């Protein structure tokens, strides 16, 4: 049986901070890329467009469905493996090589788990960026015998805070393995290196925009009040979908990094929680819908 430990993990308590709203002018149009809608999402008057890869929107969709909110699945990005991934199993096979494995997104966690199984499920100690990433390790296959000790999460779910708070024992040079997206910033390895950690980064995957879109689904997506996005790559993909139509509805981002990318690209009505994660993301979506409904009533 695979073992999953949260005994030493100090996750911050759920937060409900004030939602932050940024409004900027937008006069752009669309040409989208994506595929068909998921069976779990309703095609009837969708209120929210969910944009993660197919199969990875279920938790958000179900949380919205409990509140009577229909959604439409329109994947904006897909993940592709990179050559560094081939090295990861052999690197993990040397169990004592690293003091920490740092995982900063659910996708990085899924990629890591595949390599961990290929390496023979060695015992490892993991630091995660937040509760959403930690939850990935609850789904470790039952057939393995290894031990994943999820031993750390920062006080705020960002890479910068993780790099400043990851425990380091005395003056010993702690060794960190950081399997990441090629598009992830360098703030984690730089922050840890500045504190005296020895960091090995492997770019195990990257994200690319999807290549095709169902135009009927696109038309529905453009009319939905809120588009929910979970990464800067998804924001860039959404903006690249624009051609010859003005779009001024709301974007609900999973956290501040994604929101900053949205604002840099000129999107308006950008909502995001102070602390990244599914609960805050859901609150941001609900706030965006509430403001939209108020505006609609006022316009009557």
Automatic annotation (TrEMBL):
Full protein name: Uroporphyrinogen-III synthase
Q: State the pathway, as annotated in the record.
A: Porphyrin-containing compound metabolism; protoporphyrin-IX biosynthesis; coproporphyrinogen-III from 5-aminolevulinate: step 3/4
Q: Which reaction does it catalyse?
A: hydroxymethylbilane = uroporphyrinogen III + H2O
E.C. number: 4.2.1.75
Give the organism, scientific name.
Answer: Rhododendron simsii (Sims's rhododendron)
* Domain Tetrapyrrole biosynthesis uroporphyrinogen III synthase span(s) in chain numbering: 59-282
Family of this protein:
Belongs to the uroporphyrinogen-III synthase family.
What is this protein's function? Catalyzes cyclization of the linear tetrapyrrole, hydroxymethylbilane, to the macrocyclic uroporphyrinogen III.
Task: Name the source's superkingdom.
Answer: Eukaryota
| Gene Ontology cellular component annotations, sorted alphabetically | chloroplast
Q: Does the keyword Cell inner membrane apply?
A: no
Q: Name one Pfam family in it.
A: HEM4
The record's keywords, sorted A to Z, are: Lyase, Porphyrin biosynthesis
State if Oxidoreductase is listed as a keyword. no
Any one Gene Ontology BP term: uroporphyrinogen III biosynthetic process
| EC top class, as a word | lyase
The protein's GO terms of the molecular function aspect are: uroporphyrinogen-III synthase activity
Instruction: List the InterPro entries hit by this protein, alphabetically.
Output: 4pyrrol_syn_uPrphyn_synt_sf, 4pyrrol_synth_uPrphyn_synth, UROS/Hem4
């Amino acid at each position: 049986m695979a073992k999953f430990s949260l005994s030493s993990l100090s996750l911050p308590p759920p937060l409900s901070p004030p939602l932050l709203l940024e409004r900027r002018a937008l006069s752009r149009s669309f040409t989208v890329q994506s595929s068909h809608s998921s069976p779990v999402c309703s095609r009837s008057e969708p209120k929210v467009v969910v944009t993660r890869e197919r199969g990875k929107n279920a938790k958000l969709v179900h949380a919205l469905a409990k509140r009577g909110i229909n959604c439409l699945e329109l994947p904006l990005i897909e993940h592709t493996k990179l050559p560094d991934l081939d090295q990861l199993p052999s690197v993990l096979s040397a169990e004592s090589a690293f003091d920490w494995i740092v995982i900063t997104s659910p996708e990085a966690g899924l990629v890591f788990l595949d390599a961990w199984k290929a390496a023979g499920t060695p015992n490892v100690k993991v630091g995660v960026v937040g509760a959403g990433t930690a939850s990935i390790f609850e789904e470790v296959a039952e057939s393995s015998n290894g031990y994943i000790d999820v031993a750390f999460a920062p006080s705020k779910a960002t890479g910068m805070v993780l790099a400043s708070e990851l425990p380091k024992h005395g003056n010993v040079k702690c060794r960190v393995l950081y399997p990441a997206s090629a598009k992830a910033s360098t703030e984690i390895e730089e922050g840890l290196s500045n504190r005296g950690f020895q960091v090995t980064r492997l770019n195990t995957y990257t994200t690319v925009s999807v290549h095709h879109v169902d135009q009927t689904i696109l038309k529905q997506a453009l009319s939905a009040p809120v588009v929910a996005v979970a990464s800067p790559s998804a924001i860039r993909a959404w903006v690249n979908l624009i051609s010859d139509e003005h779009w001024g509805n709301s974007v609900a981002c999973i956290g501040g990094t994604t929101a900053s990318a949205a604002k840099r690209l000129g999107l308006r009505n950008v909502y995001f929680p102070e602390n990244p994660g599914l609960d805050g993301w859901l609150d941001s979506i609900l706030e965006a819908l509430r403001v939209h409904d108020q505006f609609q009533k006022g316009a009557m």
